[in-house]
Specification:
The complex is a heterotrimer.
Chain A lengths: L3 E12 L2 E13 L4 E5 L6 H9 L6 E6 L2 E2 L5 H11 E4 L11 H10 L5 H14 L15 H13 L5 E5 L7 H16 L4 E5 L3 H6 L2 E6 L2 E2 L4 E2 L6
Parallel strand pairs in A: 3-8, 3-9, 6-7, 7-8
Antiparallel strand pairs in A: 1-2, 1-4, 4-5, 9-10, 9-11
Helix pairs in contact in A: 3-4, 3-5, 4-5, 5-6
Chain B lengths: L3 H8 L3 H31 L7 E6 L7 E2 L2 H6 L4 E9 L12 E5 L1 H7 L3 E2 L2 H9 L3 E5 H7 L6 E6 L4 E13 L8 E5 H8 L4 E2 L1 E6 L5 H12 L6 E5 H10 L4 H30 L1 H10 L3 H33 L15 H28 L2 H8 L1
Parallel strand pairs in B: 4-9, 6-8
Antiparallel strand pairs in B: 1-11, 1-12, 2-10, 3-4, 3-11, 5-8, 6-9, 7-8
Helix pairs in contact in B: 1-12, 2-10, 2-12, 2-13, 10-13, 11-14, 12-13
Chain C lengths: L3 H10 L1 H33 L6 E6 L12 H8 L14 E12 L7 E9 L3 H4 L4 E5 L8 E5 H4 L10 E4 L2 E10 L8 E5 H7 L7 E5 L6 H10 L5 E5 H8 L1 H36 L1 H10 L3 H27 L6 E6 L4 E6 L4 H28 L2 H5 L1
Parallel strand pairs in C: 3-8, 5-7
Antiparallel strand pairs in C: 1-9, 1-10, 2-3, 2-9, 4-7, 5-8, 6-7, 11-12
Helix pairs in contact in C: 1-11, 2-8, 2-9, 2-11, 2-12, 9-12, 11-12
Classes of the chains: A alpha/beta, B alpha+beta, C alpha+beta.
């Protein structure tokens, strides 16, 4: 059984009076421990697919299962709780809370668990360590560089040890060097820690780091997934 | 609570805005407490006076006198254990800007009826023996700077001329019904100077059983119903209450203003909350993505509103409670015992909670109901 | 100059925020106008009571009619005085009057008692006080237990209409007329014949003697001459000044209250305006950046935002006036502590008061908008456009 199972999913949006079909019967599997890049032109539905996997949106028809859970059928409040422990989401524009320090931002998902203050402290420290920002824990987002902010966001995404990490254009707002740092980190998370990573990206360099690339065009996969002979550059 | 730092961090986002909002709430509740205290003080004054003493006035009007000849007949009634009389003097001190009550009494019998007038025995003795002496409530000491043993001169308004009294005693009232800013002097000196005798302004009748008050009052009035000066007798409390009603609609006015104030501030707080909520749509979407539930976010927004409302309330109500006793405010003599009542404090807190609900509800609901995907799209 | 249309459109684009701020300002203005209208009404009721052309004589040292007492001999002396004007019938225009207070239960709750003025008059009184007019019925006939009740009392106390019987001082009195007095304090009084009241109340003693000055400009002279007269000990007041002074205590209290309460509320409203404007500036930073890039000078940005804030406040001021207007003319009553008597008066809003209210609103808006406008003007283009 694949970690992410998308079965015959239909999704359409209402924009003013127009009905826009994004997916018309998409079927797709993503294996545990994989590093997948989703590519395609604007409007092809990449972000929508990510939202469906994360339970942020529901398909009009069809089913989405993640780690055995029927995500497309859960209620909003069930999904909230499920996301907290199963999904790590990273946005293009970082989306850190500017009024909280890096430490407090990373801690956010853990507040939703029953862990004690001490236990939370250990995990946050660990996550910040993994992303290489242990010395910036008490800095505010405005005191961090773009790359550092994104790495903090990644720390937040892994701190609760989620089943799958979803990243929407993670290097979109970063310069070359920061992009490299972030992508190297993702590879490490995938190789060393066995995290399942799915990124949506325009960036071919980013896609190269992935083990698998999926192309979406107008809601359809247009190429079979092909394994990339591996490695980081 | 582990989420507390989120609320605090949000309040610190725009410190100026938070401070201004809290300050507005504090101001509003200060004003609210002050206005309501005018009402409660007046109502409390109407509660003063026991039912153990009755007051007898001329039924025609309080400006008309009563013959002292009546007293013998009243004293003889069953249930009557004491009697004294007094006459309003209405003298003015200095420029008259500070009003205080002053009247003439039949000293020994009056002091016997009022154990609440407490002063050292030697002062009491001195007063009783000094025809041109007077006793004053301790508030007058702080108000005018008078001293024991000094002479004070009042300008007679109804009874013209300069009237000089020696302050023989300073009393402290143990019951707020007895004003602490009153000057009392001798009735026989009063009679002598105005060349009158056998007439008083009102009687104070002490009875043994308060529950028989209305019956005894009626008996007294029946006695004199057909005489030249018919009487109207009531308990001391009723007498005090009648003064309170003379204020007319002032109470209503204060309540209305109080309401307007609260409403105005509600608007300010609601405005601040909504402004800050609008700025945070993106963040709220992110929190929901991370897994914060709708209910949790609703609660956080409400707590934020509540923190501002209750802090402001604490400051405003606290200031009102502390300020007035500290400056000995008594409404230029018309509002003795002015203070913030416990009921006002409770009301104030309820108002603050209401403010919290009203100003936080819409933003909280908005946060709870925020559709994540749309909100994220706007941000990205 | 940045066109004002920009501000107007921006204001319209955030309706809720604008509405809330304007409403806050409006409430402050409404309370301000309301309270001053109350003080105004009270003061003008008393001011209109006295006439510039009349003088009032009281016993020396008395601070109100209530505490005064004058004998018939004093009335004769004054009637003969050369400073007193004579009426068309050749008689001196002198009105000696009895003045007492009686307790009357109010209509809505007779246990609530107010001290109402009962004034004994002679038929000269109706001429000396020339703003008094009978509105219903006939003046009391001499020798009868009849009274005339002021129009402000008829709503608020029972048994005061023409044809009814009022009971006080242990006797029944027929109400034979109602009178009005141009909104003055007399409208809260009960008038009857001197000779009827004297035996019932205080005996052969008047409380005041009011006369028409033959020459209103010669008041000081009349005052000096009468006060120096050894046959009597009196104080002479110009009637208008006397009543104005009677109103001082309560009207000062009301004005003081009005100012304190409004000041505190105004601070709150200003805070609201500050909040709104800061948020507006923050959310419109990119627009400001564009304006600056286009070449508009910073001070025009300052003026523009100030104008916007003032505009919102102006809306609030107008709202406030609209809220307050309905109370104009509402009659209320209280005790005038100077004379211890019940007086009814109506809220009185004047155009001047409305104008002051609106000006007050605009001032609040300008003060509230100042610092935010300053911040807008000081924005660096680079920052603003980011």
């Amino acid at each position: 059984m694949a970690l992410v199972e998308i079965r015959d999913v239909y999704k359409s949006f209402q924009r003013d009076t127009q009905k826009i079909d994004v997916f018309t019967g998409l079927t797709l599997d993503i294996e545990a421990g994989s590093f997948t890049a989703l590519m395609g032109p604007s409007g092809s539905g990449k972000s929508t697919l990510l939202n469906l996997i994360a339970g942020l949106d529901k398909p009009t028809r069809g089913s989405v299962r993640v780690g055995g859970a029927a995500v497309s059928e859960m209620s909003a409040s069930q999904l909230a709780g499920w996301r907290a422990s199963n999904i790590g989401f990273v946005f293009q524009s970082f989306n850190l809370l500017p009024v909280l320090t890096a430490y407090q931002n990373v801690e956010l998902p853990l507040l939703l668990t029953r862990l004690s203050g001490k236990e939370r402290n250990e995990r946050v420290k660990l996550a910040l360590d993994v992303v290489g920002l242990a010395d910036r824990a008490s800095h505010y987002p405005r005191q961090l560089s773009g790359g550092q902010e994104q790495r903090t966001a990644i720390a937040r995404a892994i701190v609760a040890d989620p089943t799958v990490m979803l990243l929407d254009e993670p290097t979109g707002q970063l310069d070359g060097k920061s992009s490299q740092e972030v992508l190297a980190l993702l590879q490490r998370l995938n190789n060393e820690f066995n995290k399942t990573v799915i990124i949506v990206t325009h960036d071919a360099h980013a896609a190269e780091r992935a083990k698998t690339t999926l192309h979406l065009e107008k809601g359809d996969l247009i190429e079979k997934p092909r394994a990339m002979a591996g490695a980081a550059r | 609570m582990k989420y507390l730092h989120l609320v605090v961090a949000n309040l610190g986002r725009h410190i100026l805005r938070t401070v201004l909002t809290v300050a507005s709430v504090a101001l509003a509740l200060f004003l609210f407490a002050s206005l309501r205290s005018v009402t409660t003080t007046m109502a409390a004054a109407a509660q003063f006076g026991g039912a153990r003493r009755l007051v007898t006035l001329n039924a025609t009007g309080l400006v008309f006198p009563l013959p002292l000849a009546y007293t013998n007949r009243i004293k003889a009634l069953p249930g009557v254990t004491g009697l004294s009389w007094a006459n309003w003097f209405g003298g003015r001190y200095g420029d008259g800007k500070n009003f205080f009550a002053n009247f003439a009494v039949d000293a020994e019998s009056y002091l016997a009826l009022y154990p609440e007038i407490v002063m050292p025995a030697d002062q009491k003795q001195a007063f009783v023996q000094d025809r041109t002496g007077a006793i004053i409530g301790d508030r007058l000491i702080s108000q005018f700077g008078w001293k024991l043993g000094q002479n004070v001169t009042l300008q007679g308004t109804i009874f013209p001329g300069d009237w000089t009294f020696k302050i023989d005693g300073v009393y402290h009232p143990t019951d707020p019904a007895i004003g602490d800013n009153v000057l009392i002097f001798h009735h026989d000196y009063f009679d002598e100077r105005i060349g009158r005798a056998g007439i008083a302004g009102w009687y104070i009748v002490e009875i043994d059983d308060p529950s028989r008050g209305p019956a005894i009052a009626k008996t007294i009035d029946d006695l004199f119903r057909n005489s030249s000066s018919p009487t109207k007798t009531g308990t001391e409390r009723e007498f005090q209450a009648s003064f309170a009603t003379m204020w007319g609609n002032v109470s209503f006015l204060m309540s209305t203003i109080g309401l307007a104030v609260v409403f105005a501030i509600l608007l300010v707080t609601a405005n601040a909350m909504m402004m800050s909520a609008r700025e945070r749509t993106g963040e709220i979407a992110v929190l929901k993505t991370v897994g914060f539930s709708d209910k949790l976010l609703f609660t956080l927004v409400m707590v934020e509103a509540g923190a501002m409302a209750l802090t402001g309330a604490a400051i405003g109500l606290g200031a009102a409670t502390l300020l007035y006793p500290a400056i000995h405010f008594n409404g230029a003599g018309f509002l003795p015992g002015f203070k913030v009542a416990t009921s006002t404090l409770i009301f104030g807190v309820l108002v603050a909670l209401g403010l919290m609900l009203a100003s936080g509800l819409v933003p909280a609901l908005r946060a709870a109901r925020l559709p994540i995907v749309q909100a994220l799209r706007k941000v990205e | 100059m940045i066109p004002i249309v920009y501000n107007v459109r921006s204001v319209v684009q955030r309706p809720v925020s604008t509405a809330l701020t304007a409403l806050g300002v409006g409430l402050v203005v409404a309370v301000f106008i309301g309270m001053l209208a109350l003080a105004n009404g009270f003061r003008s009721a008393l001011a209109r009571t006295g006439s510039e052309t009349n003088a009032m004589v009281l016993r020396k040292g008395a601070d109100s009619e209530l505490s005064s007492g004058l004998g018939r001999d004093v009335a004769s002396i004054i009637a003969a005085d050369p400073h007193v004007a004579t009426g068309a019938d050749g008689r001196p225009l002198v009105s000696p009057e009895v003045y007492v207070l009686i307790p009357l239960g109010k209509s809505f709750d007779t246990t609530q008692v107010a001290n109402v003025v009962v004034r004994g008059v002679s038929d000269q009184a109706w001429q000396v006080r020339n703003n008094v007019k009978v509105t219903a019925g006939q003046r009391p006939t001499s020798g009868r237990a009849e009274v005339c009740v002021g129009s402000r009392l008829t709503q608020r106390f029972p048994h005061t209409q023409v044809g009814q019987t009022l009971r006080f001082a242990g006797r029944d009195w027929n109400v034979v007329c109602n009178f009005s007095a141009a909104g003055s304090a007399f409208e809260s009084e009960i008038w009857g014949e001197n000779e009827q009241f004297m035996p019932v109340f205080r005996g052969e003693v008047f409380q005041s003697i009011t006369f028409r000055l033959k020459d209103p400009a010669a008041f000081e002279e009349a005052q000096r001459s009468l006060q120096a007269d050894k046959r009597m000990t009196v104080d002479v007041h110009r009637e208008s000044a006397f009543y104005a002074q009677q109103s001082q205590l309560l009207s000062n209290i009301l004005s003081f209250l009005a100012i304190v309460i409004t000041a505190i509320m105004a601070v709150g409203a200003v805070f609201g305006a500050i909040n709104t404007m800061y948020a507006a500036v923050a959310s419109r930073a990119p627009e400001i950046g564009v304006l600056l890039t286009l070449g508009f000078k910073p001070w025009t940005v300052l003026v523009s935002f100030l104008a916007e804030s003032a505009f919102i406040a102006l809306i609030g001021g107008i709202l406030g006036c609209l809220f307050a207007l309905p109370i104009n003319g509402i009659v209320t009553g209280t005790t005038n502590w100077s004379s211890f008597s019940e007086i009814a008066f109506s809220f009185r809003i004047t155009p001047l008061l409305l104008g002051v209210g609106i000006a007050f609103a605009v001032v609040m808006g300008v003060i509230g908008g100042f610092f935010p406008a300053l911040r807008a003007a000081r924005l660096q283009v680079v920052q603003a456009l980011r």
